[in-house]
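Researcher: Here's my situation. A collaborator sent me these components and asked whether they could plausibly form a single complex. I don't have experimental data yet, so a predicted model of the whole assembly would be a useful starting point for our discussion.
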Amino acid sequence: MESRDGSDVHSTEGWGYAADIDSIREAQVRIAPYVHKTPVLSSTSIDAIAGKQLFFKCECFQKAGAFKIRGASNSIFALDDEQASKGVVTHSSGNHAAAVALAAKLRGIPAHIVIPRNAPACKVENVKRYGGRIIWSDVSIESRESFCKRVQEETGAVLIHPFNNKYTISGQGTVSLELLEQVPEIDTIIVPISGGGLISGVALAAKAINPSIHILAAEPKGADDSAQSKAAGKIITLPSTNTIADGLRAFLGDLTWPVVRDLVDDIIVVDDSAIVDAMKMCYEILKVAVEPSGAIGLAAVLSDEFKRSSAWHESSKIGIIVSGGNVDLGVLWESLHKQ
Amino acid sequence: MESRDGSDVHSTEGWGYAADIDSIREAQVRIAPYVHKTPVLSSTSIDAIAGKQLFFKCECFQKAGAFKIRGASNSIFALDDEQASKGVVTHSSGNHAAAVALAAKLRGIPAHIVIPRNAPACKVENVKRYGGRIIWSDVSIESRESFCKRVQEETGAVLIHPFNNKYTISGQGTVSLELLEQVPEIDTIIVPISGGGLISGVALAAKAINPSIHILAAEPKGADDSAQSKAAGKIITLPSTNTIADGLRAFLGDLTWPVVRDLVDDIIVVDDSAIVDAMKMCYEILKVAVEPSGAIGLAAVLSDEFKRSSAWHESSKIGIIVSGGNVDLGVLWESLHKQ
């Protein structure tokens, strides 16, 4: 395993990635007062359909409805008082935005949130609920970043990156510490992939605890930049994305890519109709409101691609990270009826 | 507290009700292999709306989607082999039906299920999924009972009553043992009331553990026979019922009434629109699919009637039994849009 360095890498301890099991354990202590320990659900009916024993780590029940509060609160509570006093800023289509607004509220500092105009209504509502100051941008990543930069210049606020940051990755990694405490016998974890913050943290913690554990990513076909990156051996970005999974449209960063390249065993690509089927199954059998990005892990487990892969034969007890539950009921209903 | 007896009372130990803390602890051991220990969820957003700290005991995540498997498996696994070999029979609009089918399947015996023609589709599907033999009846309780009796005569199957039975009540009581282990500081428990099996078990267990705990019932306005019974001091039945809460249309039995009369501190009556609002809040904030009967506890906590009651001042940490999650998505969507 090659060591990595460079000015953007905050920590090169251990395996040389941006985060490690120590920074993840530190995060777990730091964020404990601000996050829920979420339950793990299972269903013999879904197991019978999947042909595997599945353990759903329900981050949809997390504060602000998604795992993002883990990374956001770790980043924000790691700031020293002087940095924190100027507030924080981020750009996000939703869950990270709400998480930053909530974590900033808990710390008592201002949060400036740049949101693209196509963000889901329920996610924008969450930002408002936690008192974040919303700045609307265009949909493009360039527009978001330029608005973000302007806020930084005007206010001195600290950027809380949604994934490409040691503290964010370490915070997200706490979800896999918890899952492996709750169900130690898990041999495989399936994680939605977008910018790679969640899967990097999950993989770094899980492989430190159990080097033989399999880490699989689930990615939507309409935003399969990570699968393409793994195939090409370098970060690939796409000119545009098209998927119902609004939380999975970002591309890998320079801190998450090395972890994805080295520690993610395989990426399973699924189409939107499989995601919608999985959302429906979560609602009808698990009784859980799951957003498209949160349902993609189940969609991957049920896919033919998974059944044909070597991972199918090597896994029997599979943890699925249900990343979030922020879905407008109308959107769920309409997606089911389009099928 | 007056002692009670009579030929229908299977146990007169302790306080003289049909069940007691010992029969409930026995049930907990008997059913442990067949039920989930369901998680307790909380939400600071909902707490802020309610003005109380709420703990949602999520029986919607229970096997077959409702608490009913607790009483059904306790009743069915308490049968001796000769009784069990002839199978079991019950009549139910849904959740108890599926629970009996599942528990019978687990014991390897036949289940005959009499279902009224107006039962929700998803609940009928559950019965089919577990291999129950369905016998359709008319909607009236007379029709259900007469079909049930015929099956008993023809097959020798044992009737598993949905609520008026020591083993059913004892099984349902295990939900409150669990809740008080998970959150010992709870001072009030709110329970949906219909035939009274769940609330009897919950009250008997909770008041044995903590005599000062408050037990409140939540009942739909269109089937408020229990509130009328409490007011009249005797069992009142209604000529008809009209509520979206399809699981709450039964009337008290002779074994549940004494417990409701003596141990239920108050009954909060709510209308259907409050139930639908609570279902929506469960979906949008808790991220949980909750059927109308399961959402009624939250509706009661949020009601003006509760705020005006003495119980409001005496409660600060409230357990809410979310009894089940079997709701057709279409029904949820349509109810929200009728508002």
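Model: Some features of this prediction you could bring to your collaborator: Chain A touches chain B at residues 36, 39, 41-42, 44-45, 58, 60-61, 63, 65, 122, 129, 280, 283-284, 286-290, 325, 329, 332-333, 336 (CB under 8 Å). Chain A has 16 helices and ten strands.
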